[in-house]
Amino acid sequence: MNKSASVLLGIVVAVGAISAGGAWYTGTKLEGVLQKAIVDSNKQMQTAMAGSNSTAVLELVSMERGTFSSTAHYRLKGEGEVFGGEPVELLLVDKIEHGPIPFSRLVTLKWLPVMATSHTELEPNPLTEKWFAATQGKSPLKGVTNLGYDESFNGTYELLPLDTKLDEKTQLIFSGLKIDMAASAQGQKVKADGYMDSIKLTTVSEDQTPVHVEVNGLTLASNLSKSTYGYYMGDNTVLLSNIKSTFGEPKSVLGLKNLEMKSSSSENGTSASGRADYKIGELSYNDKTIGAAQMAVSLKNLDIPATMSLMQIYQTKLQPYEKAAAEAAAAGEPTPELNLTEAEEAQVKADLEKILAGAPQIALENLSFSTANGESRASLVVDLAKPQSMDLPPDELGRQLLALLEFNLKVSKPMLADLITVQAQMEGQTDAKMIADQATATSDMFSAMAVGTQLATLDGNDVVTKLHYANNQVDFNGQKMTVEQFTAFVMNQIGGGVAVQ
After folding, report:
1. Fewest C-beta atoms under 10 Å: which of 211, 321, 364, 428?
2. Among residues 106, 94, 194, 75, which one has the least CA distance to residue 143?
3. CA 369 – CA 378 distance, rounded (Å)
4. Can you give the pLDDT at residue 100?
């Protein structure tokens, strides 16, 4: 053995000897740490499922403690709509190496002290036995987690690849999914990054024609911080390179490329704001490009304590009522009454007033579709305000609730012509001049009808509608009027028919 190797081996042996004494000590602390982590996890799951009729509970079934390692068994129970409406039970086994330097880190020269390194796997039960069969008896889910003495952690979690028949007509091929995750002490900050290469599903439709769906290039990323009220806020990103669906006879292919789903949320004092952006880089049909789409929605100035209070009443009163109403309807019985106590009614009213006092804003900032020759776009902004009283007559209550409404719509005639052209080609038409003439005529007819109703104007090649409301005044396509005048105008145009010019 050369000198360098001898020195390295000596260091490994020395570090191993030093860590042996600490292993017993951390083993004695481990069960308490795990129990605390389980309590925290259950709180987070309860928070995450607020507003749904679902519940999830993680419990420590057993703990077998040794000097250098321990084995823990967990049970995860879930039920409700998040789990498909049926109760779900998953079993997990966790083989935990005690710190300060677990053996697996020692031999890989990772000598930074940690409390423990856990190796987690799914255990077979009736629910997961087919999943295990698809991975040749290996745990389809596994993870390695390093727990720090400050209760921070980092780890890697994997869903194994599989190629299996779900039933006689359905085949699933999955490349596997890997996620790296890290969290600071008490989970105050959490980061996660994941990637999946592909998933392919082959089956048949109701008319027995073949269906093939393929998803490629899934990227996940989250960077979150726990808010003052226990929710996680920050940024989430989901990216997809390509989705392709093949179906029908004759065969048709629907394609989506470069999909983006991004969301962000933040907290400012007692108010929360959030935004979500969705993009489709390319939509195609039978390899013919149709266009691209975008949508952006936002919410601002939402009072957090009042919203959480309303959510609590929803979970304790409305969710059971919805379930009872659905059961009564299924049985052909009368719908039960929703009964709130005077205190609950007062709380709902107070919470709504508090939310409105914060001047919340809801916005569809962008809903657009573009083709080679044009883009159509819509946007809507609604600002709410606290009324003088929640007991006002409906008309007056509506006026005081709505502080601002702004709606803009632009429909591109060239974009319409592009879509009509694609539709004609899908139907098998081949005469290019006839298709072009039909597309132009149809877009011109739409423009004439919209302008003829006086509900839209023509701006170049765009059919445009603009509506702005504030302080009981409406500005509609440049015409200023009261709400009553606007309502009468719209009803007259709709009821009076369309005058095509």
Report:
1. 428
2. 94
3. 9
4. 63
What type of residue is 305? P
Torsion of CA 340, 345, 348, 353, to 10 degrees: 160
Beta bridge partners of 181: 155, 192
Q: Is the Cα dihedral 284, 288, 292, 293 positive or negative? A: negative
> If you search the block for the tokens 């029908």, which residue do you land on?
248
Identify which of 260, 217, 225, 265 has the alpha carbon closest to the alpha carbon of residue 241. Answer: 217
Provide the token pair at 250. Answer: 């004759």
For residue 387, the number of C-alpha atoms closer than 13 Å in the C-beta half-sphere is 16
d(CA 216, CA 200): 9
CA 172 – CA 246 distance, rounded (Å): 15
Residue 313 near residue 347 (C-beta atoms within 8 A): yes
Per-state percent for the chain, helix, strand, coil, to nearest 5: 30, 45, 25
> Which of 144-147's residues contact partners 24+ apart within 8 Å by CB, and which partners?
144/117, 144/118, 144/119, 144/120, 145/117, 145/118, 145/120, 146/105, 146/114, 146/116, 146/117, 147/33, 147/114, 147/115, 147/116, 147/117, 147/118
Write the CB contacts of 460 (distance below 8 Å, at least 6 apart in sequence): none
Q: Is the dihedral of CA 46, 49, 52, 53 positive or negative?
A: negative
Helix (H, G, I), strand (E, B), or coil: what is residue 227?
A: coil
Quick one: which of 24, 88, 91, 82 has its CA closest to 62? 91
Phi and psi angles of residue 391, each rounded to the nearest 5 degrees, phi first: -100, 15
Q: What share of the chain in percent tops pLDDT 90?
A: 36
Over pLDDT 70: what percentage of the chain? 89
CB 88 within 8 A of CB 116: no
On whether the CB atoms of residues 222 and 236 are closer than 8 A, the answer is yes
> Where do we find the tokens 């596997």?
176
Are residues 314 and 352 in contact, defined by beta-carbon separation less than 8 angstroms? no
Backbone angles phi, psi at 388, to 5 degrees: -60, -35
Q: Scan for tokens 């900050």, then name that residue.
A: 189
Q: What DSSP assignment string belongs to 459-479?
A: ETTEEEEEEEEETTEEEETTE
The beta strands (E) that lie in 325-360 are given as: none
Q: How far apart are CA 307 and CA 291, in angstroms?
A: 39
Averaged pLDDT, 163-180: 88
Instruction: Using the structure block, give the residue that is written with the tokens 């856990």.
Output: 118
- The H-or-E segment that residue 447 falls in is helix 432-452
pTM (2 d.p.)? 0.84
CA–CA separation, 249 and 345 (whole Å): 57
